[in-house]
Specification:
By secondary structure, this protein is mainly β. It has a single domain, classed as Beta Barrel (Porin). It has an eight-stranded antiparallel β-barrel with strand order 3-4-5-6-7-8-9-10. A hairpin with a 2-residue loop joins β8 and β9.
Length: about 210
């Protein structure tokens, strides 16, 4: 899987946010730039899976607009999904099928959140917006799903989500953020015979960011 669909959007958006302006003969940053990292917990609502905590890391570019701010981010999000029961439980039984092992997937997403924030006071902001996610890599860790169904296309490659959260300034150039990310599209791409319903992503992120510009 590749970045061809996500990278052009990300490069154009971040480039637009990070341009410089000429002010009284000096060049000042057009926007604030920060690096960020933290923990992520993302699950698949409606899917027969359990999720394990993962991580999130990336870059954020924010343009202040009085009490408001517009920001674009480019993130890598790692998560892991494991089926609650043996993978074969969801299929038509065939002789020789592994009826013990569970499906186990490791997924790396590239995500492009586009957000608006509002400053409540000098320390606290609320934010909301949307996020486009794209699977950069998916790994069937034990090969069970792939051996049963022929490929590792367990979930759809792209996802559109809504985002809401809080951001707290805790020190000079340092912010801590809490963010809920709720998928708005069906990502079920499995071949499970007994699980035809829609799946949506639900994620919680806790991150720290450091402003570098």
């Amino acid at each position: 899987m590749n970045l061809r669909k996500l990278l052009p959007i990300a490069i154009f958006t971040l480039s637009a946010f990070t341009g410089n302006s000429q002010i009284m003969g000096t060049r000042e940053p057009f926007a604030d730039v920060a690096i960020k990292a933290g923990g992520s917990f993302q699950t698949l609502s409606g899917a027969p899976v359990k999720a394990a905590p993962g991580w999130v890391a990336g870059i954020s570019v924010r343009k202040p607009l009085y009490k408001f701010g517009a920001r674009a981010e480019l993130l890598a999000i790692h998560t892991r999904y494991k089926t609650k029961f043996p993978a074969s439980l969801y299929s038509l039984y065939t002789p020789g099928m592994d009826t013990v092992s569970k499906g186990d997937f490791e997924v790396l997403y590239g995500a492009l959140p586009l957000l608006i924030d509002y400053r409540l006071n000098n320390s606290l902001k609320v934010l909301a917006g949307a996020q486009l996610s794209y699977i950069l890599n998916i790994k069937d860790k034990n090969g069970v799903y792939t051996s049963l169904y022929g490929d590792d296309a367990f979930i759809k490659i792209s996802d559109f989500s809504l985002v809401a959260g809080l951001e707290l300034n805790v020190a000079k150039n340092v912010d801590v953020a809490f963010r809920l990310v709720k998928g708005a599209t069906d990502v079920n791409n499995s071949k499970y015979y007994l699980v035809p319903k829609a799946w949506t992503t639900t994620g919680l992120q806790v991150t720290a960011s450091y402003k570098i510009l």
